[in-house]
Request: fold
Amino acid sequence: MEKRTTFSKWSVGILFAVPQLLLIFTFFYWPAGQAIYWSLTLQQPWGGGNIWVGLDNFRSILASADYWNSVTISITFAAISTGIAMGAALVLAALTDRQLRGSKFYSVVLIWPYGIAAPASAMAFRFILAPEAGLISVVNQWWPGIWDPGLNGADAMACIIAAYSWKYIGYSFIFFLAAFQAIPRSLIEAAAMDGSSVLRRFWDIQFPLITPTIFFLLVINITESFQDSYGIVDIMTSGGPHNSTNLMVYKIISDGFKGLDYSGAAAQSIVLMLLIIVLTIFQFRFIERRVHYR
Amino acid sequence: MVERTPILNFLTHVILFLGFVVAAAPIVIVAIAASHNMVDVNQVPISLIPGTDFWANMKTAWTTADLGPKLLNSLIFASGVAAGKVILSALTAFSLVYFRFPGRNVIFWLVFVTLMLPLEVRAVPTYAVVSNALSPYQAILDVTGISWLIEKVTGIQISLNLGLLNSYPGLILPLVATATGTFLYRQFFLTIPDELTEAARMDGAGSLRFFIDILMPLSRTNMAALGTIMFLWAWNQYLWPLLITTDPSHATAVAELKQLIPNAGGGLPEWHIAMAGTLIVMLPPLIVVALMQRWFVRGLISTEK
Reply:
């Protein structure tokens, strides 16, 4: 889409874009370029020389079992937490959209968890799920030692998934509810007049109409799970026990800042960048389709 | 609706209520734990009847984590990001929509690509840039030989240095450097009728006057939506403030949460203080969401396109 009427002094026009361009050059393109350069060299942590090594950094991370462990658990984390968050949000939004009494109230309060910072939610869940205090600790009284996120990797993973999905139920709920409300009421009323039940209306009318939102949320939730999980992991488990919650972003930061392995961290960043770019392109494809449908 | 479905209605109420309980429970439990004393908070399971030490715990958490200045830092940081976003992206969108200049498409794509890579992914090199914000320009001068030329001619050695670690600009600017708001404004500007622009030009308004007197007042709803969403997003940032502030005087409240994790080394863990601190940190964004819900939802749905 283009404007017919524009201003003729385009030299002034460029000036309006200059602040943003300076900012993205300094804090976006330069660091991104730097990451590519670092990933191809062997970088000394305290300045000094660097040696061109080509793709060696990538070879060494791809050969490292630790890295593949991190990739596997990141994918597990993304899949389970996206499934929980979107599934719960879809059910809640569909029921809220039935507009029974009290649905206004639910449409307001179910959004609140998204306002809370991920690390704060992690802190709350760290207490609730703590093995020696809080709520879940009861199971340890009945069966001693059955629940211990400090020692058991699966328990620790369950902790970060709980804290993360809790926040993102609210997020997906916002989008699902908006999508349901965008469906013309008359469509559903007409189907009801024809005698179709609530469930039939959901599967045959509402669900097909919100599939673009489902695809959109699927991609957004997966990309967010790569980024927003840092605070949760840092507060709840610090990547442990035995690297069982050492997700990709967490590993990049700890290798880069604690391990001072700039080249390895940069190579890992590039892999993650490519992953996110592929997902984003995929997403824009679907958004294009959505515009087409209308 | 036209039919009567008593069983389904009952189920709907039950499931929605369960959803409400799941959404509210963690916040409520944090508040209850914050009101217990050290022995009660470590009871298994925790008693859900609030204790009496709420204000005392809040006070302790406030002073041990030094939350006053931290909350102020968070406020400055989040407002700075929101204001920067609202202003800069409006300028860029105006330039992209209302002018035809060579290279406009290139600029559009340069801005667009920044949507793809979140700060978390490029944190390590961005940290290096922030520790000397002029290093990209120094490198350009060095590589192109300009600094060598200047040194030969004038004898002055050029070393540009602007360290932004432990400063508000260092916290704020890298988070502003993405395109989220630009596309929100762009979509909105494209819906503004051309007749308005023509009329303004007929009356002799230049581009700057049109921008300030017509476009900005019309975009107030957009600004509220974008401002709210960006404020919350920045307030809830964790990794970036943690990396950039080594000096506690610039630390933000969310990044400070880590200090509150009780260590169980001997004695009972001080969960009551930790939960009081968590409550203080999570309340401001909750209040913003509750008060600004309309703008928040609108901002989310339109920025994420």
About this structure: Chain A touches chain B through 107 residues (CB under 8 Å). The CA atoms of residues 90 and 176 of chain A lie 6 Å apart. Strands of chain A lie at 41-43, 50-52.
